Amino acid sequence: MLVSKRMTPNPVTIAPTTMVTEAAITMKNNKFRRLPVVDNGKLVGIVTDRDLRDVSPSPATTLSIYELNYLLAKIQVNEVMKKEVITINVDATIEEAALLMYTNKIGGLVVVNAAGGVVGVITETDVFKCFVDVMGLAEGRTRLTLEFTDKVGALFEITGIFKDLGINILSYASQHLPDNRIEMVIRADIQDATELTRRLDAIGYPVTNVVLIGK
Question: Which of 70, 118, 178, 193 is at 20 to 30 A from 52, Cα to Cα?
Fold first, then answer.
């Protein structure tokens, strides 16, 4: 799955000379948490809702509302934006985007093309939705969890049981555990997994959990 298929294209951008108050209004009206800052078609920074909160006066201030508005109206985005922007190429994969966000502890990435132009924004919400869609979680069916020792041909043997029983596998995912173990989650078009569970256990692939998910 590519970033280009999951990002928000043609994102709203602002200029570095945009006033902080205007940027805050743009974020609030569009329910954004971040805005790319672009100057002459080039990405020069990013400003987040947290950046704007950091420059807002404390509720304990003794300044009047008029004084507050006057001070904020004099601050430009280029004074508070982050100039080092973590970006991702439009042709990158969702996995790459997720890893970048996880590693850098950020909630979104600016998406750029080969020329460095801003073409989109992808957020943690987009990644979560992709996971839900890929796993088909919203569609229901039965979810089975297996845990077994990793070996060549394991997937072939497991899917062979599904084939023999005429059960359609809708999606699956796996992760490595300590001691060369594998945990695999399979979502299948089946209501009663009794025979399937028995057959898998018989060939060394015990099912540790069975649950009907979604609808």
Answer: 118
Quote the CA–CA distance of 149 and 155 in Å, as a whole number.
12
Asked which of 114, 132, 150 is the last residue of a domain, the reply is 132
pTM: 0.73
Amino acid letter, residue 59:
P
Beta bridge pairs of residue 43: 38
Q: Give the amino acid at 110.
A: V
pLDDT at 74: 74
Q: How many other C-beta atoms can be found within 10 angstroms of the C-beta atom of residue 92? A: 18
Token representation of residue 12: 């709203």
CB 69 within 8 A of CB 21: yes
The residue type found at 211 is: V
Q: Are 187 and 211 in contact (CB under 8 A)?
A: no
Q: Which tens digits make up the pLDDT trace of 69-89?
A: 556 667 899 998 999 999 999
86 and 104 assigned to the same domain: yes
Size of the chain in residues:
215
Are 113 and 91 spatial neighbours (Cβ–Cβ below 8 Å)?
no
38 and 88 in a common domain? yes
Query: Which domain range does residue 80 map to?
Result: 3-132
- Give, in order, the Cα–Cα distances in Å from 210 to each of 96, 141, 197: 31, 11, 9
Structure tokens at 177: 């555990």
Spacing of C-alpha 84 from chain mean position: 21
